[in-house]
Amino acid sequence: MPLVFFYLGSARAGLEIDQLRERDTRLLEITDYYTEIQGSISSIAEEKGVVSLTLKDNRIRKMMKGKWEEVLYEPPGIMVSLKECEGTSLKSLGIGQVVAVRGEVQPFSQARNPGEFDFKSYYQSLGGGFYPFC
Questions:
Q1: Domain range holding 40?
Q2: What is the mean pLDDT of the chain?
């Protein structure tokens, strides 16, 4: 019986690794492009003048050759970092509100040295994959 649990655990781990690889591949597709993400706000946090939103039910588009192109990937959660932009009121944001954010996508930094904090692994464990900046 323990052998069955070992094989089930191995299969699940393999599936999760495949999902992380898919996420990284999709991230590379939109890195270096001006990107628009539309989604529903599931959480809001503010620290040092920067507002972080977690969006769910997302739609992603990237600007290519002057046209918006749909990205066929719907991650479960996207973390967005916003600074106060001219003409934008961050105080009006609320949970459940649908927003569209445009900016550049930047992947989380990964630990380079043993024992160093790994932002990429931490935020991916929370369901987020990248930050577009306003």
A1: 2-133
A2: 75
* Amino acid at the residue 82: L
Q: Which residue has 């070992």 as its token pair?
A: 6
d(CA 10, CA 13): 5
DSSP β-ladder status, 98-107 and 34-47: antiparallel
Instruction: Look at the chain and report how many structural domains it folds into.
Output: 1
Q: What is the pLDDT of residues 39-57, one digit of tens each?
A: 999 888 887 777 888 888 8
Give CA separation, 20 vs 91, 106, 109, in Å. 34, 16, 15
What CATH number corresponds to the domain at position 34?
2.40.50
CA dist 33 → 9, 59, 69, 82 (Å): 38, 15, 11, 18
pLDDT digits (tens, 9 = 90+) for 73-105: 777 777 887 766 555 566 778 899 999 888 887
Structure tokens at 113: 């040295």
Pairing of strands 34-47, 67-71: unpaired
Band of residue 22 on the pLDDT scale cut at 50, 70, 90? confident
